[in-house]
Amino acid sequence: MAMTANEQRQAFYDRIAGSNLTPLWEVFADLISAQPESRARPALWRYDDIRPFILESGGLISAKEAVRRVLILENPGLPGQSRITNTLYAGLQLILPGEVAPAHRHSQSALRFIVEGHGAYTAVEGEKTVMQPGDFVITPSWTWHDHGNESAEPMVWLDGLDIPIVGFFEASFAEDLDQDSQPLSRPTGDAQARYGAGLLPMGYERSAPTSPVFNYPYERTREALEKMRRTEEWDPCHGLKMRYVNPVTGDYAMPTMATFMQLLPTGLATAPYRSTDGMVYSVVEGRGRSHVGDEILEWGPRDTFVIPSWQRHRHEVDADAVLFSFSDRPIQEKLGLWREDRGNH
Ligand code: GTQ
Ligand 1 pocket by C-beta < 6 Å: which residues? Predict the structure, then answer.
């Protein structure tokens, strides 16, 4: 019996598979889609729902034994992959009074966004910074960092790392320091004074692509938003949205992850928006909801939510909202890939 065209093709595919060959035409539409087709889903983690689990993890393992005691926020569309978007990792890290998360360094860049607690510290390259809710703290690629809690309360922060990106490039290196806490060589506040006061030391040149400021305190960010709101210049899609910058270059504070803080006033309903960078949000203040496709994410203080790449969304605000967010936008922009779509086009 003569083979059908399909059978002929399949037999051909089977034969060439032995030579590590496969036909493009069978996979073309998957490889080169007309539009982004994220497998990630919109999702929200209500802090009140998951806080008990975070605290429970504190009774199961110490920060030292765990190295980092973190519950990973896994996108429900990407199970088992330790990622919140296709390119980004996020987790909630707990450090209890008296604990130390031992010093290590790795190729992956990390951001911390403080969610609960007061006064724990992160040490980065010989300087400690004390953290408060709403602070944005950076540990650049390949810098030694350890965390400790000398306060009387548990501290929880959102970790954002470029783990899937570094994994994609197969460029991961990591090592542990031979002591839990790194030696300190600079007083607390040194980086802030040197690089974060609208001044730079004469002759200062920086080769690293990450901002030398490693704590952007919420107090200052919040005050900037509050002063700016008086002009009532609201962007229809974003309200009042600011990006964190590297003061040396004016670029994003980190080379792989963009970070933002935005203020959305009570009663605002934003215009539909989408962009090619999937966004992770942490709610600092206020209440509202985000409509993402058919889903509605109802958010309040300390909640985390994610909007995948190219999913049209809009926000409705019940009470003055302050939202921190991060995405892979710097990389996409450098590669000429980033796109946005404002409104309903
Ligand atoms: O604090 O260094 O959530 O290395 C994942 C990996 C946190 C950290 C994470 C890490 C860290």
Answer: 68, 70, 91, 93, 106, 110, 145, 159, 161
